[in-house]
Specification:
Radius of gyration: 22 Å
Strand content: 15-25%
Distance between the termini: 16 Å
Shape: globular
Helix content: 25-40%
Number of helices: 15
Length: 399
């Protein structure tokens, strides 16, 4: 079975084509600046030079049409015909309470995705554009929606509800939803495979630490709590997002600085976190500046790792223990100093880091705790696209 995975932004299409018999990536790429006269299409096939094309691409349908043309191109192609694409997996950010699993896309699914636009106004609309474009260009294929939020629908009510008037949940579905679910699901299952254990036997804390960041408590293979909330703003300190703050700060700052709602929202999402404290959102720059004696960078790094460590402690309490801690995503996979600072004060849990193995990364999957450590600490590179492809295959093969 050949599956095309699509992740659409407002002006972009990321794609990967998988041969699911071997889970091999046949081709992948990115269409950028859709709606522009100078859109850029980058197409990559293993063993070949990258194909980069600049062209006028006015909408997602046209963008996907160009992608499909490259997939069957005489030199750059990997298919004889687009009819070989059996199914298309669509990343959809927000499924609200409507979806606790991936689903075959039909008119009811599209209506439900559209209904949840208010919960993800920057993401669900382009996701819908991608679905429309793919259904238009690949009408023969099965189309599957894979939701970032679905994995977290197993959280108990006391974990996902906010202590706000109940009417806000009843009328507007104000609650914790969580994100990065596809990544947390993938790395938790992969960690269990590496350890030779059943994921349902483990208590796992998964730390997806990139520009956006979240931790998830996974017990018996299910998400029981997660740090992001109704939106991706809640929880950990991130590259440009503030994470948890006293909510009274918002009206206080709005009054003092005479900010509009849009301006304070932009401040918390785009100008806070590492960027707000240290002037850099890239962890590599933060680490370098810290070594060079920059006190703002040192403070940002300490705040960042403290929040992660504090959340790990909370989730160990929530699950009455932890067997495995996973680091994944850009920072989690590459920043050895972040992992070291997080784990250095988890000794009360029995965490004992192997500093040589930790410093030796990135080298793919690896256990970075010592054999004596009561908690296994791992680095597992995430592969959300492969998880989406697997989910798409599972749904597409259902009778």
């Amino acid at each position: 079975m050949k599956i095309l995975v699509i992740n659409c932004g407002s002006s972009s299409i990321k794609y990967q084509l998988f041969n699911m018999d071997t889970e091999q990536v046949l081709a992948k790429g990115l269409v950028e600046r859709i709606g522009s006269e100078s859109s850029i299409l980058t197409h990559k096939v293993p063993g070949q030079d990258d194909w980069v094309e600049t062209a006028e691409i006015l909408d997602h349908r046209e963008g996907l049409n160009k992608v499909l043309a490259l997939l069957v191109h005489k030199e750059q192609g990997v298919l004889q015909s687009v009819e070989e694409v059996d199914a298309v997996g669509h990343r959809v950010v927000h499924g609200g309470e409507d979806f606790a699993s991936s689903v075959l896309i039909d008119s009811d699914a599209i209506r439900a995705i559209r209904k949840n636009v208010d919960l993800a106004p920057l993401h669900n609309p382009p996701n819908l554009l991608g679905i429309d474009a793919a259904q238009h260009n690949l009408p023969h294929a099965k189309h599957v929606a894979v939701f970032d939020t679905a994995f977290h629908q197993t959280m108990p009510d006391y974990a996902y509800m906010y202590a706000l008037p109940w009417v806000l949940y009843r009328k507007h579905k104000v609650r914790r939803y969580g994100f990065h679910g596809t990544s947390h699901q993938y790395v938790s299952r992969r960690a269990a495979e590496v350890l030779g254990k059943d994921v349902e036997e483990l208590k796992i804390i998964s730390c997806h630490i990139g520009n956006g960041a979240s931790c998830t408590a996974i017990q018996n293979g299910k998400s029981v709590d997660t740090s992001m909330g109704m939106t991706p703003l809640e929880g950990l300190m991130m590259g440009t997002r503030c994470g948890d703050i006293d909510p009274a700060i918002v009206p206080f700052v709005m009054a003092k600085e005479e900010l509009t709602l849009a301006e304070v929202n932009s401040m918390m999402n785009k100008h806070s976190g590492l960027q707000g404290v240290a002037g850099h959102s890239d962890m590599r720059e933060i680490v370098e500046a810290t070594f060079n004696g920059d006190q703002a960078a040192r403070l940002a790094l300490d705040m960042y790792t403290y929040r992660i460590r504090k959340t790990i402690g909370a989730y160990a309490a929530a699950m009455d223990g932890v067997d495995t801690i996973i680091f994944t995503a850009g920072v989690g996979e590459n920043a050895s100093l972040v992992r070291e600072k997080v784990c250095s004060k988890l000794t009360y849990l029995g965490v004992e880091l192997d500093k040589e193995k930790n410093a030796d990364l990135p080298r793919g999957e690896q256990i970075i705790s010592t054999p004596e450590s009561r908690v296994t600490v791992m680095v597992i590179p995430t592969d959300e696209e492969l998880m989406i492809a697997r989910e798409t295959q599972r749904i597409a093969n259902q009778p």
